[in-house]
Amino acid sequence: xxxxxxxxxxxxxxxxxxxxxxxxxxxxxxxxxxxxxxxxxxxxxxxxxxxxxxxxxxxxxxxxxxxxxxxxxxxxxxxxxxxxxxxxxxxxxxxxxxxxxxxxxxxxxxxxxxxxxxxxxxxxxxxxxxxxxxxxxxxxxxxxxxxxxxxxxxxxxxxxxxxxxxxxxxxxxxxxxxxxxxxxxxxxxxxxxxx
Length: 195
Hints:
By secondary structure, the chain is mainly β. It is 2% helix and 43% strand. The chain has 1 helix and 15 strands. The strands form 5 sheets. Strands 4-11-10-6-7 form a 5-stranded mixed sheet. A hairpin with a 5-residue loop joins strand 8 and strand 9. The longest helix is centred in the middle third of the chain and has 4 residues. The radius of gyration is 27 Å and the shape is globular. The N terminus is likely disordered.
């Protein structure tokens, strides 16, 4: 909100000054403000005890919403739970490592809130024991390896997985999902067919 004060008036005899004040206030419209809306919601997952799970949550709104995570109605706080914020502030990733079967099986809730209001969404995490993995459960056959590459050279990272149905592979960099479409062609994901 901005206010302008205007002074106007003629000089009066004997040096007196009549001052008329005009006060006009401009109220900025809050019509541009909007309730948060999810653009990337966490998905249900099944992991293996000792492994890792990552939930992604992104939202848009005006002003930009703040993302928070809850487990069973309580704010998440554990050394095994790490929240990494997106650089643009649009969301965060909840990473749980190592997974523990009885302690981590739960619904995880993502809340996006701003001055207009808040929205919530949740996803379920199931954790299996290593000796109780069903047939066809995804497994990584070849994982990415540490590489040293000269500046301005190309690096190729390999990842192969098997399972039935064929697993979908997702890439993360510094614990955030790799967004291939916003990399200006620098990052490409090449898929190979069945061997």
